[in-house]
Amino acid sequence: MPENTTLLPLPAEPLLDLLRKEAEEHDLECTQTDGWLDLSTQYGIISARIDDGAVLLRLSSETEGELTVLRDAVNAHVSGQFVPKWSNVRTGRPPNLTVLRLAGKTQISPSFLRLTLSGDTHRLTGAGFHIRFVAPAAGKPHWPRIDATGRTIWFDKTPLPHRPVYTIAEVRAGQADIDIFRHEGGRTIAWADSLEVGDPVGVLGPGGSGLPEANRLSLWGDETAMPAIRRILSEAPEDTVGKVTIAVRDPDDIFLWGRRGFEVRWLVRSDPTTLAHAMIADRAGADKAYLWFAAGAAETKIARQHAAELNIAKQRRHIAAYWT
Questions:
Q1: Mean of the pLDDT values across residues 238-249?
Q2: In terms of CATH, what superfamily is 3-78?
Q3: Is the pTM of this model over 0.70?
Q4: Which of 35, 155, 224, 246 could form a disulfide with 322 if both were Cys (CB 3.0 to 4.6 A apart)?
C-alpha cells in the first residue's frame, strides 16, 4: 500500500482537533490506536500522532492516485502555515490524471448537459465514481505536475481553478459520459459550454464513494446526485432491491429510468428541504436498508441527524453534501 509521511512543526492539538472535526462533518470513521489518530476517508487513511511537540502525519491509500488526492488535501489545509516535504514521492504528471478528448455534447434535459469524452477510459472504471475536471488554459494544454516535495503544481490562468468534483455517469469502451448540472453563474457549465469537439479535457480520478455493498438500498438525492444514482442502479448486482427518491426543481428533468427491483419516486421541490423531510417521513433506513443520501449541505445536515436518531451505523449509510 503506497504511503507518504511528513513531520509538521505545528501545534499538535489544533491539527488533531481539525481531523476530528472533519470526521464529524463528513461522517467519517475516526479511531485512536497506539498513539495514532486514524481518519478513514474514501481515498485512504490519514494518521497523525504527536512527535516531540510536532505532528507526524502518515498517509496510506490503495493506489498512488488516491494517495495524491490525500496529499493535496493536507497540503491545502496547511499551506498558509507550512509547506510539507513528503517522503516516497513520485514526481511528474499526477498518476490519477487522464487526458481525454471531447467527443460530443448533449443537452439531455433543461438542467443537464452531457459531455461525452473519448480516449483511454479503462482507468475510469475503478471503485470510485467521482472525478475532478482539469481544464488547461486557452490554447495551452499544459497539465499539472508533482514536485519533489509532493506538491501538485498547477498552471496559471486555468478556467477551473477550483477543480470541481463530478460523477462519471457511464463508462464504455473508449468513451465516458459526465453530466453537468446547469445553474446560473456556474463556472463549470460556462467552461463546458465553451468546449468544442476535439478539445482536450483532463480528469483526475476516479475516487471517492462507489457502489454500496448491500442488497437492499434506500437512495435519496437531488439533481446533483442523479448521475451517481444512475450509476448505482446500472452496476448493482441483479438481486439488489430498494427504493429511489429524487427531488428536482424542474419537472422536465424527470427521466423515465429505473431498474427491476427498484421503486422510483420523483418529487418536484417546493422548498430547499423537500427531499430531507420526505426522507424523515419515510423513516428511511429504519428497515435496515442501506441509506444513501446526497444533496446540498443543508439537507445533508438534516439527513445526518435523522441517521443518528435512528442509530444507523456508519457501515449502513453514506451521506454526502454535493454542494453548499
A1: 96
A2: Kinase associated domain 1, KA1 (3.30.310.80)
A3: yes
A4: 224
